[in-house]
Amino acid sequence: MLLTLGFSSQFALAQRGEIESQTYEIIKDKSIEFAPANRVFDKVQPVKGETGKKKVSYQIVDPEINIASPKLTPAVAASSDEQSRKDEPDALNNYVKAGGGNYGRFLGELFVGGRPKEDLAFTTQLKHLSAANGPVDGKNSANAATSFKIGGKYIRSKYKVDAGFNFDRKNYYFYGYKPQPEGVIVDRDTIRQTINQFGFNLGFENTDASVLVDYSVKTGLNTLKDRYNASEIDWGTNLTASVPISESFFAMLEADAYVSQRVDQSTYNRNLFRVKPTFKYVTDMFSVSAGINAVNETDSHLDINRTKAFPAVNLDVTPFSGLHIFAGWNGDIVRNTLRSMLSENQWLGPNVLVMNTEKSSDISAGVKGETATGVNYEGKVAYTSYRNFYSYNNSLSDTSRFSAIFDPGKTKVLTISAQAGYNFNELFKTSLKANFFDYAVEMVEEPWHRPDLTLNWFNALTISKKLFVTADFYMLRGLKAKNFQSGAVTKLPVITDLNLKIDYLLTRNFSAFVNLNNVLGKRYQRYQYYPQQGLNFIAGLSFSF
């Protein structure tokens, strides 16, 4: 069983929940890994590095709607001391941890993983993170999040099966209300929100190299229910297949089927079906793929039943080892659900409008690669046309709740992204990413609460075998909001946030950690009327077994 260190930046409307303690999620995930099968999905020439040098790749991952915004979500990472022991033959990969901090914070977490057989592995995780008080009116901005996850993998010589179950419960309050006169007490029950989510997934993939067709099938069922009788059931199935026509020519297929039912004031059925056949030609110097992305969507509430076809053309050229030049012309219907929108902005009001976004055309080009010294880089320019491009703003009826505002006209977005990363002998890791956005909306005033510039800088330093430090800095600029009751437009201050995490290995079994979040102490507003906590911390102990 291996212990891996991962960190990810999630973008595109990535406000998942209340910003309580920090603005980025650095996760050290225990995962049980098996040797990967020799797949031909998305076959492309690898970047060749020097023999014996361990590479760390940094890749710009484009979300469905590529409008970046750091995942401003409180999180507490697993203790770094576990990473230092990953290569020990008797590494302690299970742990229990507990901690607390200001604002009445409490953290409790348990992780247990096992590999009872060579081809069978499982992981189980239970976590609770809460704050008894928040940035506004004490308990009126408290919050709590509890999650439970269990998953397993079963790998044979000819196939792989993986399955998982998860439960998430979030409890928080709409504290973005107007300041109350002295002596007036807000009824907490009227501003409370509770969201319960259940999810189950099952996947099957062939790993038999002798079989001509490579394929993978995944299916998942997710349910959501909130305190105001809104609910959603969402079932999705995804198929990926590849057939070699010759040594360099492949026929590929992606197919998706989503069946959803949303209940609010009324019951809505929303379905989407996608078929994407493509052909791919690969040589030592380049790869090119071309196909059609055909999508059908239905929505009983909006009386929609339509099918559209989009281009799917991509080119990757490798003029020499270590450098890729790529370009693409693509389109799609971006699927939006109540669950996905609440994950972006938890302050949504009741009966929020949910509809899909059409990405009519996405033309992009860029370069990526790495140098012999271990520096990874990627730069990209994209010009995208949308219909039903959406943003969030305080609603007219209640400014403490948010509405989704869709632009039915053509929205054009220019995106310029650049990222670089460096890894020095596992002792120092750094990754820097910047995004610039220029919006041209047609039938709405502004892309409310959308940033025009974001900057993310992550660093991890191993000072000794017992001491580990991570630091991450974030910046968002260009957020605009409007109060539809008064008509006032506000340009929100630039968000700057610095977070530090220190882990110290006390003994083989015990370690201590300290998280310092929002070190700059800025009570910034990612969403209007929702100031975030200033400097806050969590400290605690972790026991590994």
Helix content bin: under 10%
Estimated structural class: mainly beta
The stretches of 5 or more residues where confidence is low (pLDDT under 50) are 1-64, 68-90
What order do the SSEs take from the amino end to the carboxyl end, as H and E? HEEEEEEEEEEEEEHEEEEEEEEEEE
Q: Can you describe this structure?
A:
Residues 72-91 are annotated as: Disordered. With 545 residues, the protein is mainly beta. The chain is 2% helix and 55% strand. The protein has 2 helices and 24 strands. It has helices at residues 81-84, 338-344, and strands at residues 95-101, 105-117, 120-131, 143-155, 159-173, 192-206, 214-226, 231-244, 249-263, 267-282, 286-299, 304-317, 323-334, 357-370, 375-394, 402-424, 428-440, 453-462, 467-477, 480-483, 488-491, 495-505, 510-517, 536-544. It has a 22-stranded antiparallel β-barrel. It is globular, with a radius of gyration of 24 Å.
